[in-house]
Design goal:
The chain has 135 residues and is of the alpha+beta class. Helix content is 16%, strand content 42%.
Length: 135
């Protein structure tokens, strides 16, 4: 009985270390990752998303923002290779009390298409962020 507990304890430690090693250094959201954020009016916060603009795709915000405002965005490639993907950093500011459900999708923008052509009714989101803004 004691041996089983020791084995289970060691297995739990190994699994924990494997999870920590696998996620180490990841500071952005991949498709399918979702989150809830609690901020106060006046706070700024960052959402980083995986993106590869060289493929003709861009992260498009599908929902209206009432409690938060997008302040800036910047793309940083993962390498200096032509066509390299990377991470886009979106900086938001909380401007009013309330809750926004921010849905974002990596949309193909071929031809004349723009992000504004996509919304939460005609495009499936890749990520959903629930942002609660308090005073």
């Amino acid at each position: 009985m004691k041996l089983i507990r020791v084995v289970i304890f060691i297995a739990a430690i190994l699994i924990t270390l494997a999870v920590l090693f696998y996620t180490e250094g990841k500071d952005y959201y991949e498709p399918g990752d979702n989150a809830s954020l609690d901020v106060k009016i006046g706070d700024t916060f960052i959402i980083k998303l995986d993106e590869n603009p060289s493929t003709g795709a861009k992260n498009c915000w599908l929902t209206d923002m009432r409690s938060v405002r997008l302040v800036s965005e910047s793309f940083k490639p993962n390498s200096s290779d032509d066509g390299a993907g990377g991470v886009t950093t979106y900086t938001f500011k909380a401007i009013a009390k309330g809750t926004d459900t921010l849905k974002v999708a990596n949309c193909r923008l071929a031809g004349e298409k723009k992000c504004s052509d996509h919304n939460d009714k005609n495009t499936k989101p890749d990520n959903v962020f629930v942002v609660r803004v308090g005073e």
